[in-house]
């Protein structure tokens, strides 16, 4: 019994190690009212596609932890998005299948500044990637 649990532990840690979530850029800078595209990439299968895709992206800001984007079992959950981002976030659905989470955030506010984190889970594993966004105020 012990041997089996040990084997499972080794197997699952191997799976975790092969499933990655990367950021294409670890930090972004933008001016308020401008827009930006934040991008994450995750491991995809060479054959077939995922049945179960879970994505949870959040922003850790001075105003708290805000939900930016969420996918549950392959289905988007727009209702979970925080009001602060309402109508300002667009996802590039075409590239999502290729393992790219491209979130376009428009009309940036200084309070959007913070640490942006995306958790991705599929049958193949779980991982997360983070990047920092800093939005600067424009002074006249
Ligand atoms: C993640 O980054 C590593 C190191 O740069 C690279 O080898 C790997 O292919 C990347 N994977 C994905 C899914 O972006
Ligand atoms: C940014 O947009 C807000 C709301 O539309 C506006 O009040 C503000 O003047 C704009 N700031 C700049 C620097 O353009």
TrEMBL record:
Keyword annotations of the record: Cell membrane, Disulfide bond, Glycoprotein, Immunoglobulin domain, Membrane, Receptor, Signal, Transmembrane, Transmembrane helix
Position of the signal peptide: 1-16
Chief location of this protein within or outside the cell: membrane
Membrane topology: Single-pass type I membrane protein
Classification via InterPro entries: Ig-like_dom_sf, Ig-like_fold, Ig_V-set, T-cell_Activation_Regulation
Immunoglobulin V-set domain span: 25-135
GO cellular component annotations of the record: external side of plasma membrane
Record has Lipoprotein as a keyword: no
Top-level taxon: Eukaryota
GO biological process terms on file: cell surface receptor signaling pathway; cellular response to lipopolysaccharide; immune response; negative regulation of T cell proliferation; positive regulation of T cell proliferation; T cell costimulation
Protein's cellular compartments: Cell membrane
PANTHER family xrefs: PROGRAMMED CELL DEATH 1 LIGAND 1, T-LYMPHOCYTE ACTIVATION ANTIGEN
Protein name from the UniProt record: Immunoglobulin V-set domain-containing protein
């Amino acid at each position: 019994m012990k041997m089996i649990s040990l084997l499972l532990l080794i197997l699952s840690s191997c799976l975790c190690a092969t499933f990655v979530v990367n950021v294409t850029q670890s930090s972004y800078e933008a001016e308020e009212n401008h827009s930006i595209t934040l991008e994450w990439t995750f491991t995809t299968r060479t054959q077939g596609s995922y049945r179960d895709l879970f994505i949870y992206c959040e922003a850790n800001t001075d105003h708290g932890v805000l939900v930016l984007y969420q996918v549950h079992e392959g289905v988007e959950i727009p209702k979970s998005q925080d009001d602060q981002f309402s109508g300002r976030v667009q996802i590039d659905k075409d590239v999502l299948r290729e393992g790219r989470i491209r979130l376009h955030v428009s009309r940036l506010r200084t309070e959007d500044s913070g640490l942006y984190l995306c958790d991705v889970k599929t049958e193949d594993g779980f991982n997360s990637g983070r990047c920092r966004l800093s939005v600067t105020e424009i002074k006249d």
